[in-house]
Amino acid sequence: MSVIQLEDVTKVYRVGEVDTRALRGLTLAIEEGEFTAIVGPSGSGKTTVLQMMGCLDRPTSGVVQVNGQDVTRLNDNQRADLRKGTIGFIFQFFALIPVLTAYENVELPLLLTGNGDKARRERVNELLEAVGLSDRAHHRPDQLSGGEKQRVAVARALAVNPVLVLADEPTANLDTENGNQVMEIMEHLNEETDTTFVFATHDPRVIPFARRVVTLRDGRVSENSKHA
Amino acid sequence: MITLWKIAFRNLGRNRRRSVLTLIAVALGMGLLVVLAGLVKGEVDSALRNGIRLETGHVQVREESYEEENLSLAWEDLLENPQDLTAQAEALEEVRVATPILWANGILGAREESVSVRVVGIEPHSEAHAPFRESLTDGQFLEPDDRGGILIGQRLADSLGLDVGSDVSLLVSTANEQPDEAIFTVRGLFDTGVPAYDETTVLLPLDKAQAFTRAEDRASAVWMLLHDREEADVIATALSAPQFKVMTWRELNFALLSAVEQSTGIMALMYLVMLAVVAVIVANTLLMSVFERTQEMGILAALGMKGRQILTMFLLEAGTLGTMGVVLGILLGGLGVLYLATIGLHIGDMTTAVAYSDMAIPSTIYAEFAVQDTVMLSIASLVITILASLYPAWLGARMEPAEALTAL
């Protein structure tokens, strides 16, 4: 069974009097354990596809299924519950909560899912160690470098053992060394935990990490290739 | 909930200057209201207290036909046997002190000047007149058998250039409606702090006042103080008789009490305006906060936080700010009230304007901490702060996650 199934999905944004068609009948399936890059030029619909997969937005038409469940029929609270336990997110601008420490940022999804103190502590420490930030646990985002922030974001995305991690331009604001480091961590976690990773990128340095590359153009899949 | 509160509390520290300014606005608003409430309570309470101790007592028994406006001295308007009635009143255990009293209109003349005064015949040794005795600034208090001495207010003495020992002429309209005039010597001066009394009252021993006004042994009223003023109705019932009019402090201070009642609406309006200003400031702060943190709303929503949790977070933020502001406001206001309770607010001769009214407003108002008003205002401040933050919070909570994240 596919983790994600998008069938003939369209998305039209209305900006003022103008309709912008971000997705034009896109069909795509993501299987369990994949490490997939979605690439394409700006405006091709990469971010919109991730938002559909992550139940952050609703399609104008078409069907989005997560773990076989049609999420287009869910209300806001049901979608929030689905995201909370199933999907992890990594964003281009790190997107940490600035008033919380690295530890607390990673802990936040675990609090929202109602994990106990001990379980939370163990999981947060395990993840911070996995991303090499045990010694930075009690620093706030403004005390961390860009690479460190993105590693915290990776740890947070994986906190609840999600089925799927969606990363939107995860290396866009990182230098080569930090970008590679973040990708290696994601790749390692994918291999180790079999968590499905889908990342949108236009960074050519990232593409070699992907085992599958989906190319979008004008809101449709134009190319779908698998790497060894 | 703890996590939401933690985030909310820390968010307040994110833009410290803005939070502190908002906090100051809430605290100043609340503080001002506490001071205002304290001043009003101080003024009302002292006016009522002064009215009771200097003028009305807790209960008065008068002849049914007595006309207060004219300070009538006609025999049929006066109490026939005030001493009997006084003894009857004093026998009641609720009554602390009872004394006959005689009021008359008069004109006090000194040198070229003369002023209208209210002549009050009192039993000098009665505990009822302790306020005058205690406020004596110069000279001696009256003795019952003094046939030529009077007491006047310090203010009246100052305005006429009189002193202890000065001779003055006093003209009264007697019981048979004929004027009579006599020379009296100022034995002492009193300063009750209430211009309404200090500028218009002349005290005489009751015997002399009765003789001077031809009232003989009659009195205008039997005047009494109780141990507990709430017992006034009980005493009024106990002393009621067809020929008497028994009045309690509520009826006797009707002008003041109804003025207070009328001013309650105006005060509530003032409170509301002040609270509305505070609410606008809090709403503005929260709105700015929502717009600045749009992307964070998206992140929190992406992590699975529901709209109502985001709403709660903002309400907690406003509630924390409001609570801190209210506590600080009560402290600031409390200090203000403490200062005004000790030093007082001198409103000076403003009270001369009401000198002839029934209100015993002192020239210096001493604030009193208005506990009930402060509790009510604290709750109102908090509720209004929370209400004011509902719109910004709702705005933050209803954002589509994707829409909020595009603010990245």
Question: Can you offer a commentary on this structure?
Answer:
The complex is a heterodimer of chains A (228) and B (408). Chain A is α/β, with parallel strands linked by helices. Chain A is 33% helix and 30% strand. Chain A has a single domain (2-226), classed as 3-Layer(aba) Sandwich (Rossmann fold), CATH 3.40.50. Chain A contains 6 helices and 10 strands. A 6-stranded mixed beta sheet of chain A has the order 6-7-8-3-9-10, sandwiched between helices. In chain A, helix 3 (102-112) packs across helix 4 (117-130) and helix 4 packs across helix 5. By secondary structure, chain B is an alpha+beta fold. Helices cover 52% and strands 19% of the residues of chain B. Chain B has helices at 2-12, 16-56, 82-90, 130-134, 154-160, 195-198, 206-212, 232-239, 249-252, 254-292, 294-302, 307-342, 371-397, 401-405; strands at residues 59-63, 95-110, 113-122, 136-139, 149-153, 167-173, 179-190, 201-205, 221-226, 244-248, 345-346, 364-365. In chain B, helix 2 packs antiparallel against helix 13 (371-397).
Overall pLDDT confidence of chain B: 87
The oligomeric state of the chains shown is heterodimer
The assigned structural class of chain B equals: alpha+beta
Tally of strands of chain A: 10
Element pattern of chain A in H and E: EEEHEEHEHHHEHEEE
Radius of gyration based on Cα positions of chain A = 17 Å
**How many angstroms does the end-to-end distance of chain B come to?**
26 Å
What is the level 1 CATH name of chain A?
Alpha Beta
Q: Radius of gyration of chain B, Cα only, in angstroms?
A: 31 Å
Total strand segments of chain B: 12
Put simply, the count of helices of chain A is: 6
